[in-house]
Amino acid sequence: MNAIEIANLTKTYGAQRAVDDVSLSVPDGGVCGLLGPNGAGKSTTFKCLLTLARPTSGTIEVAGAPVSPKTFEYLAYVPETSALFSKYTVADHIEATRRAYGTFDVKRAAELAATFKLDSKKRIGKLSKGQRTAVAIVLAFAIRPRVLVLDEPASGLDPMFQRAVLDLIIDASAGGASVLFSSHQIGQVERAADSIAVLKGGKLVLRGDIDTLKGDEKIVEAIFSSDAPSPNGLANDPRVRRIERSGRILRLHVASDAAGVANALQSLAPKTVDVFDLSLEDIFLGAVSDGVA
Amino acid sequence: MYYMDFLRVRRALRTYSIVLGCIVILIAITIPLSRVTTHGFTVGIGGDSSLGDARTGLALLHELGKDHSFPIDDFATAAIAFAILFATGLSTSLSRVNESALFAFVKPTSRERSTWVTFGIDAAAIFVAFLIAFVLSLVPFAEVGLLGRITFDSAVHLPATIAFGLGIGLMWYGMVQAATSTLTRGGAILGISWGVFATMRGLGSIPQGTIPDSFYWFIHAFNTINPLVYLQASFGDLHGHYGSLGVVWLVALAALAIATFRRSRMEV
Question: Where exactly are the structural domains of chain B?
Answer without folding.
Answer: 69-264
